[in-house]
């Protein structure tokens, strides 16, 4: 249980190894608070495993920020300036800390999709 993420590069058909991601806690009455930043491993996942384990995950609102444009530039993709997608911000809520919250991202330089995974 806990919180995890996984990113797939749909342009190349691979995990998004090397993409930079930031995790924030959010609330209506305060600016977002940075929890951690990390670079995705060869499988497109956080190299340290879960972002929060079951004991650390708290009910509330969170934001994952995926540095999509920098990732695709590093892969040699010629992007316009400004890029169509720069950073993808996903705001989501955790209501039941006994459940696992998996937040996958499927991304290309021009589109993205997400869902609550398992």
Question: What features would you describe in this structure?
Answer:
With 118 residues, the chain is mainly beta. The chain has one domain: Sandwich (Immunoglobulin-like). It contains one helix and eight strands, in the order E-E-E-E-E-H-E-E-E. It has one helix at 68-74, and strands at 2-9, 14-15, 20-27, 30-39, 60-67, 87-94, 100-107, 112-114. The strands form two sheets. A four-stranded mixed beta sheet has the order 2-1-7-8, with no helix packed on it. Strands 4-3-5-6 form a four-stranded antiparallel beta sheet. The N and C termini lie close together (10 Å).
Write the CATH fold name: Immunoglobulin-like
Q: Which shape, going by the Cα principal axes? A: globular
Relative helix content: under 10%
| Global Rg | 14 Å
Q: Could you tell me the number of beta strands?
A: 8
What's the number of helices? 1
CATH class category name: Mainly Beta
Could you say what the CATH architecture is?
Sandwich
Q: Name the CATH superfamily assignment.
A: Transthyretin/hydroxyisourate hydrolase domain
Arithmetic mean pLDDT: 97
SSE series: EEEEEHEEE
Helices and strands, with pairings:
Blueprint: E1 2-9, E2 14-15, E3 20-27, E4 30-39, E5 60-67, H1 68-74, E6 87-94, E7 100-107, E8 112-114
Structural key phrases:
118 residues; mainly beta; Immunoglobulin-like; 4-stranded mixed beta sheet; 4-stranded antiparallel beta sheet; 1 helix
